[in-house]
User: What shape does this take?
Amino acid sequence: MAALPKSGLSLAEFQGKWTLSRVITDRRANAEGVLSGAASFTPDEPGRMIYEESGTLSYARQPPMAATRRYIWTETEEGIEVTFETGKSFHTIMLDRLMPDAIHLCDPDLYNVSYDFTRWPKWSSTWSVVGPRKDYKMVSDYLRTD
Assistant: This one.
């Protein structure tokens, strides 16, 4: 079996500001949402960055609303450990490949993410989420602005 191509990325390369475009396809509600905004990676301590995003979310026929998220990204030997603000583990981004996948179980829901770093510094994440009350796909595109 041939070795997978290495991404060559490290956490430090994410530092800075990014434009963020997101499309959410909710199969259960037969609705679509679009988020336009920005994301940033700010050093917090060595080997650790705070990821913050903010934007305007237009979903279905509802009025546009402000949307924010915040995670902690920490470099490890395996890749980047992504945690919630509380410190609870979310998933690990394996940097030994250009298109890593990860899974997060938030019982009863299953979150599956695929990253694509093949066009760096443009990159994306695609989440597929399924559960008793969830069935959606969320594609986020990032492009460096600084």
Summary: Residues 48 and 74 are 4 Å apart (CA to CA). The first strand starts at residue 16 and ends at 26. The mean pLDDT is 94. The chain has no helices and ten strands.
